[in-house]
Amino acid sequence: MRVLGVDPGLTRCGVGVVEGRPGSPARLVAVGVIRTPADDEIGARLVAIERGLEKWLDETAPDAVAVERVFAQHNVRTVMGTAQSAAVAILCAARRGLPVALHTPSEVKAAVTGSGTADKKQVGTMVTRILRLDAMPKPADAADALALAICHVWRGGMQNRLATAATAAATARAGRSLR
Question: Which amino acid positions bind Mg(2+) 2, per UniProt (predicted)?
Answer without folding.
Answer: 68
